[in-house]
């Protein structure tokens, strides 16, 4: 009985000694699943951001209207989308009746000047004869009064002439500022009234983002902070906070933050866009976005061990910026993270390490 036990024990001991050898041989002969690159998480200083959304609207809008009445539009020189400069002619009105009135008033001024010259001559003569007794006191007073009346009449006619000149100038309607025409109601042949709206103009082509943010962030938002906007065609636009709205909507609990866009950026007004406003800068542990593996609604990364096998680790992610993702929990800065190809790996896969 003892003789049969000794060979059996020896066989078991030999098998146990061979297990590490066979395991090492298996690791050497197993085919690596993939060749991967590794990187350690980076420590960044990232700004905390506030999500926002709102409309792109004109910084200031000017209404161009007629200042005169009863005249017909003879020329419309611009249309919607036209970029205009301050003082540029936009519309011309009929001048025929205005020119006729102007000539008539100019003649009235000349008549008033002649009347004043005659009245002044009579008054000067009355002053010379005042002490001689050749003219009665009543006659002298009448001549002096006629002179004053003639002066007042000339001033009145000259003022009326200036008024006619202004009316003539008003037959040419010009741009009040540099800008972009966004609407037009001026129609050729239409007879305008005083105050008739003809154009809308976006002053200096400046557009701003009226961003709605949660009221809980208002105390931390101030003039000059940087805002990032997802512009048309997903083109990023950077702006600066110009003004923080003084009131909060009772219906939504949100406030409007006015963000000025660069003067050389002219996105279409009326678009609803999203973006964010930068607050304070805080540290962030980040990995490349390609290192994140999303499975069953959970974020993972793969880390490489010393034996060239990978381990799948669940992580909690935060902010994203410039192709990197913030890691809130799951790994630390000492980890060796697989930077790409994680979607093709499984836990405990053998890999080759590039480089």
UniProtKB/TrEMBL annotation:
Any transmembrane segments, and where?
none
Show where the YknX-like C-terminal permuted SH3-like domain sits: 284-349
Leader sequence segment: 1-26
Q: What protein am I looking at?
A: Efflux RND transporter periplasmic adaptor subunit
Q: Which organism is it from?
A: Rhizobium fredii
Keyword field: Coiled coil, Signal
Report the GO molecular function annotations: efflux transmembrane transporter activity
Q: Which family does it belong to?
A: Belongs to the membrane fusion protein (MFP) (TC 8.A.1) family.
Q: InterPro entries of this UniProt entry?
A: RND_pump_MFP (IPR006143), YknX-like_C (IPR058637)
What cellular component terms from Gene Ontology apply here?
A: efflux pump complex
Chain segments annotated as coiled-coil in the UniProt record: 99-164
Per its UniProt entry, which superkingdom is the organism in?
Bacteria
Signal keyword on record: yes
**Carries keyword Coiled coil?**
yes
